[in-house]
## 1
Amino acid sequence: MQVFPFIVVAWILAVGLYGVVTSRHLVHQIICLIVVQSSTYVLLLGVGYVTGAVAPYFFDVPNHTPAVDPVVQACALTDVVVEAAVTALLLSFAIQAYKRFGTLDPQELAALKG
Amino acid sequence: MTPRQRRWIFLVAGAGLVAFYLWGLLGLPGFGRYPGPYGPAILRVVVAQTNATGVVSAINFDYRGFDTVGEEFILFVAAAGVATVLRRLRGERDRPAVDEAADRDVPDTSSAVRMVALLSVGPVVLAGWWLASHAQTNPSGGFQGGVMLATAFVLIYLSGEFLVFKRFSPVDLTDVVEAVGAAGFAAIGVSAVAMGLPYLKNYLPLGQVPGAVSSSGTIALISFFVGIEVAAAFILIVGELLDQTLLIRRYSSGRGG
């Protein structure tokens, strides 16, 4: 069970990448990219996990209770914000691509570029 | 490149990725045995140093505050980028959505949806402010609270009131709020420099009780500014995307119209 979380990470990453490569629709492709990025959340939180520890909040537990690593959790928060920003930009690119080329199929878009 | 070739390239690259991933996995500590030292070092000193019981916020807005300035400006630039990419292009014009098939009956937004959406606005705003102002206490903070505040405006749109949504969040005002949020964070850092302290040094009084709303000095203040920046950025992004579907149409009725 030691490596199980990291196998989950690899699985989420693989599913997302497969979706990105085979996608026939830009919005679907962007969602697949979000799935790829979700694997990094699991990785970060998995790396910082400490068996038997509490969440790093000492509001209602005594200070110095063993807690999981808070730094990777802060990194995961950064990760989420960057993902939201990237998604918004990519969606606006998708809108403009559709207006310009009349299709949202990445493979047709590549063909149009010639 | 045919889809078939693409899949083969992906499989080869994927095999390489799997090999590297397994190699990297061998160097990781086992699950549940995080060895530190950075995280445990912060856990030992954080409450004494900052009076914040929300350690993740303390890291985001104090220990690694400089990173978070960058993170906040990523969102700021993304909102500006969305506005730039979705600007009105040549051959496009504003056109309010008109009913082009007047003979077909388009159902109004159901009153149940309107009720639930409008009734949720107040509690959502309250919860958003609560999150943005309790970063130092518990698992909340400016980023979470800001997204929730923006949700309140999306609820107004959902209740079928696009024009009310625009009236409540005029682009000029939202721009200013976003700029104030982003600049406020940076200014707190610069004000520390002006006093001869390091950038983003937590120089405000830390309060008496760990985890109180008034405690933790600049952490609470930065969280507040992040909250309004994030809320404004998301309102701008949502507004731009809605404009695209509801207002701006292609002039010619050509492809993709």
Note: Chain B has nine helices and two strands.
## 2
Amino acid sequence: MATGAYGISFGAISLAGGLDFWQTMALSLLMFTGGSQFGLIGVVAGGGAPLAGAATAIMLGARNALYSLSVAELLRVRGWRRLLTAQLVIDESTAMSLGRDSERAARLGFYSTGIGVFVLWNLGTAIGLLGASWLAEPRVLGLDAAAPAAFLALLAPRLRGREAWAVALAAAMVALIAVPFVPVGFPVLIAALVGVVAGLLPVRPSTSAPEPTESAAEKPL
Amino acid sequence: MTPLWIGILVGAAGCYVLKLAGLSVPKSVLERPRLLRIAGLLPVVLLSALVAVQTFSIGSELMIDARAAGLAVAGIAVWRRWPFLVVVALAAITTALVRMWVPGS
């Protein structure tokens, strides 16, 4: 149910952001990873270059590579099955396959969740699109604030520990400072460098790039 | 093909390749802690930057308008762990109401 509701908001926000029905459906069917889809429409809706949106989406999808790494042993798929299975690797299916008693249970959890979410997500997207299509003026309805709210909801569960907070605040500052100086869509990509720099820094002492905060006190990694 | 369609297809292809890569590369990649750390931090920095840019700018201009009020309410809703759709709807409704009271915001 949560997936369907999430899909509905994606469909509505995407339409408000200027994508049409089939462009939005293509994202849900082909990209099929919520954070990345929101990332792409977020950049494009602000007037950013579509390829900058694609780059944002791909970086947000990098975590799926870690997920598929961790489920690869359990699933052991080859050939065309691997090609189809790959599309189902998302937060939910990974979570439902790890920590199971048997490989059978892990596979069952992965595929039933992956396929279920795929269906609900695309159904939700279509409903959101059709529902929002009769809304005349997205700005009057405050839909331009819906996208950042969605990002905030996606971000919140990842803000565990002071380091995550420090890195997140640094990234927000860097992005805002960049806004007047670079083309639309690029501030977010520049902020991605904050993550790269923070990731390369030694874990123990200070972590966030521009601000020398005492951030590495707790470290849930 | 329009640039938007190209962006959609390039983005989708990139995301798919990442999913496929994890199923195909040797497990030893997991032993590279810096790579894992960066992959873990990327969603945090990108989402945070998106929140900031989408709330406080239009095009290449920084500004504070009704969206900030919407985001503040969304922040409370997220903190209270309300459902996703509620968070998004409250942000939109708040922003719309502020615009009704304060024209031009």
Note: Chain A touches chain B through 105 residues (CB under 8 Å).
## 3
Amino acid sequence: MPQLNLVEAVRDTLAQEMRRDERVMVLGQDVGTLGGVFRATDGLVDEFGTERVVDTPLAESAIVGSSLGLAVAGLVPVAEIQFMGFLHQAFHQLGPQLGRIRYRSGGRFEMPVTIRTPFGGGARTPEHHADALEAQLANCPGLKLAMPSDPVEAKGLLAAAIRDPDPVIYCEPLRGYRRGRVDVPEDDYVIPFGSARALRSGGDVTLVGWSSCVAVALEAADELARDGIEASVLDLRTLVPLDVDGIREAVAETGRAVVVGESPYTAGFAAEVVATAQEEAFYTLQAPIARVAGYDTPYPPAGVEDWYLPSRDRVVAAVKTLLEA
Amino acid sequence: MKPLTDSAAVAPGVFSIVEPDGSPARAVDPPLSDEETIEALRWMRLSRAVDERALSLQRQGKLGTFPPVHGQEAAVVGTAMALDPSRDWIVPQYRELPAMLRHGYPLERYLLALKGDPLGSAIPEDVRVLPMQIALAAQLPHAAGLAWGLRRRGLDGVVMAYIGEGACSEGDFHEACNLAGVMRAPLVVVVQNNGWAISTPRERQSAGDTIACRAQGYGFAGVVADGNDVQATYHCAQEAVARCRDGGGPTILELMTYRMGPHTTADDPSRYVDAEVLDEWRRQDPIERAVAYLAARGGFDDEAEREMAEWVDATIDEAWAQASARSAPGPERIFEQVYASEPARLAAQRAGAIGRAGG
């Protein structure tokens, strides 16, 4: 098995999918000659040529909107938006268009479109390069939302996204891009959407996260174990579809839960998880479910971003508050 | 000289006043006096030196990612010098530092921005500049509205908005230009055509001949000028500004220049820039051109050269000393200026963040 970091896993999976299905094409800003600003498409133009790996003009709305048209024409576009913060420029093509074309065409048009985009903070990036917009995207019916948390997940979820007949926003954790190399399956590897994974089992509290916050939850679980507190950790993997059964079982297992997500607190996706958990597992709860999230401020400049992001210590503190309740 | 911009037609060719070697490109009087040319050179030199100093500090881990102006100094400085800071506005993208400095944005703030301090993007009360814009082309609708608003209020200010040729592919470019044309807004859209949008070359942005020719479709003037000739950029900007003040509506001023450095310090242009083309542009360096021009006129001696170099160093030293003297920002700074009146929930979040930091 090759040892790959997350961005290398993305790159290899793209190549594998392009070899598997000649309809698959990659488009976006700087994805060709440069191989992407993070090298997620490195070398693809050499193997597949400029008709299948396309440097587009600088226009996010046109990248997303034309992906819809390319799909109608029978292609399978995998578009890159360089940073999720720039997805805003394409928003009217996302929810109202890409997410609705199946519905408004009475099922006439399949949308096997994948929009890849790195997101999240902690990488000392300039403004608009660190936003976490998953809650906004999850509120657009018709779109699916994949949130890989490590290189193996990146491969399995990207293959699933590309093969999905519906549009998928595939969100890549920016600070997880080069966190470390692990064994990644070489052959075909697909993770079905809507199946959360339990990473750790413990009887005292359940930590729920996705993407970069899975690593934060795992660090917190290690720290809590030193104090004799055993935490379960659940990685949601996809926010749409949401694994409601998985959330119920994981929360019911301990009766206490902390949901960790890095977008702003109010109406962040953590709120959806909390609402779902109380609907599904209310009578097992021994304490209110807590959220550890960003704050209700714009994503702050690099000099103060560490204070903003959910951290191991914030999760540990939230757990201890629950246990004292 | 026949005015180039007295109609909506695009000027044929690229307008220069001074050749790369400093000699006249055409038989016209350069619009900047020797004294003004020295002022332009001063801003250009400062800009180049800030790039160099910031690069060194960035490599030492003291500053974050930044976009050098290197190569585009005449495009930025010449256009900014056509403005009156007491009534005109600058709406930048992010590669126009010397224009912002001339207009009154303090260099210390820029260095703080690169340090990741929230104070960095704060604009002093009396400075008519919007914060640098990283979401490309988003600044143009703002600029159109600002220009329209100035006209509505009967003020004679002009708005100069900057954008790169890559960002001109964004939808906001079209929407803003179209609106500004309809409203006869006093707006100058300066397109810094530096050849590259990160790795994407100009010819992959648009099949059109120029960006400026789009102005015809919006019903206003479009001009193409040599962006490395500060006399030409100043001249064309001044004409466009005068037209705005006379109620003649917007202009797209496309300046042909070249990004001689990386897109930002996170970029590696050796993967896509042709070294020979880069060398060709180095021979057209805007600062060298202004120096050669002044030298040929005897307007810039060794003494003046030395004084300018000292001023540049002292200006940067002072700004860096001020920026370094400020204490590192704490968590409370995340919560400043989100709302005029802070909602209770946000106040509670602030207290929690400060409490955790203190504990």
Note: The radius of gyration of chain B is 21 Å.
